[in-house]
């Protein structure tokens, strides 16, 4: 299945109680979506370790036909 990846910058607004989702206000992703605020999941809970609300992060957004998630969070 095809996977597209995008490098995205954004601000963490909050972390959801499931421990696998952050609500992120991100900048425009050229050719994919406009700037918006949305919940983004991680596949590995460890990826959110050390991330706190108001952090400015850069991450890789991975998108397939069926799902989307972020990793490589800095």
Q: How are the strands ordered across the major sheet?
A: 3-2-1-4-5
What's the tally of helices?
Answer: 0
Structural class: mainly beta
Q: How is the main sheet built?
A: 5 strands, antiparallel
Helix and strand string, N-terminal first?
Answer: EEEEE
Roughly what percent helix? Answer: under 10%
Net shape: globular
Number of strands: 5
The proportion of strand residues reads over 45%
Distance between the ends: 27 Å
Mean pLDDT: 96
Give the radius of gyration.
11 Å
Low-confidence stretches: none
Describe the structure.
There is one protein chain. With 74 residues, this protein is an all-beta fold. The chain is built from no helices and 5 strands. The chain has strands at residues 4-15, 21-26, 36-41, 56-63, 68-71. Strands 3-2-1-4-5 form a 5-stranded antiparallel sheet, with no helix packed on it. The chain is globular. 14% of the residues are buried.
């Amino acid at each position: 299945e095809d996977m597209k990846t995008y490098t995205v910058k954004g601000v963490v607004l909050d972390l959801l109680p499931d421990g696998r989702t952050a609500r992120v206000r991100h900048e425009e992703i050229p050719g994919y979506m406009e700037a918006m605020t949305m919940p983004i999941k991680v596949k590995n809970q460890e990826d959110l370790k050390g991330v706190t609300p108001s952090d400015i992060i850069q991450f890789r957004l991975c998108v397939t036909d069926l799902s989307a998630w972020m990793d490589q969070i800095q």
